[in-house]
Amino acid sequence: MIDSLYVGATGMHAQQTGVDAVAQNLANMNTVGYKKSYVVFGDLMTRAAMGGQPAGVAGADAARNLGLGVAISRNAKSFVSGEIKQTGKPLDLAIRGEGLLEVAMPDGGVAYTRGGPLKVDQDGMLTTLAGLQLKAMISVPNDTDKLTIAPDGKITAWRNGGRDADELGKLDLVRFNAAEDLAALGDGLYQATERSGDPVLGRPGEDGMGLYAQGYLESSNVQLNEEIVNLMVAQRAYEANAKIVQASDDMLGLVNNLRR
User: Fold this and answer.
1) Helices and strands (H and E) in the chain: how many
2) Terminus of the chain with fewer CB atoms < 10 Å: N or C?
3) Contacts of 4 (CB under 8 A, 6+ apart)
4) pLDDT digit string (tens) for 154-171?
């Protein structure tokens, strides 16, 4: 009975985490490039417990494995592509297909993003909207009239009314063997983890990599109907685990009353 109390409690905690993930997804339905979160559950370590039969009964010495409840294995992200919507803004950038853009972090590390609104900072560097420079270190001349980003990532600055063109560099893409295990940093940025593995560098349009889409943004991949169903399932599972705790408590109460 003590075990069942613990099992029920772990179940309630796990399902509450599932509800929290759904709430996070629903709150970010309209966030550009947001990737839905989901919780991966795993059973807690099992242990051997005696069947409880009196000595001499067949099978009394046979142990049976009992689980100790449920644990949260990890919080993961779904990198299924969201809808690509046209904005017409030249510094909006999306990725059609697989791949992530590398961003240089202030601490010298590298983060990864699915694109989003870019800008040119006061030093002429192409950055994210939060002011983080791209790892490719693209410097835009002051006299640039128009900036184009080709599907293969080639960036061109057009000057003198479009008569002169300067190639500024090229944006590659990276992929991960387990992108779902990237750590979310906020603002659409992700960081590699031990689970995700190291990034694999590639070129847009080659070896299954996606292509850049200038003037487009990727919408969140959250589906309202799926999240509502997930919420209902988690809520029902929470209620069921709460009933286990209540039933176990009632049984313990009966045992305590037998002693009187």
Assistant:
1) 2, 19
2) C
3) 244, 247, 248
4) 999 999 888 889 999 999
CA distance 90 to 163: 18
Length of the chain as a residue count: 260
Please tell me the distance from the alpha carbon of residue 169 to that of residue 171, in angstroms, as a whole number.
7
For 163-210, what is each residue's pLDDT tens digit?
A: 889 999 999 999 999 999 999 999 999 999 999 999 999 999 999 999
Contacts of 41 (CB under 8 A, 6+ apart): 14, 70, 71, 72, 73
Token pair 């008569």 is found at 163
Instruction: List, in order, residues 6 or more apart from 1 with CB less than 8 Å away.
Output: 248, 251, 252, 255
Q: Given this model, what pLDDT does residue 61 score?
A: 47
Do the Cβ atoms of 245 and 9 come closer than 8 Å? yes
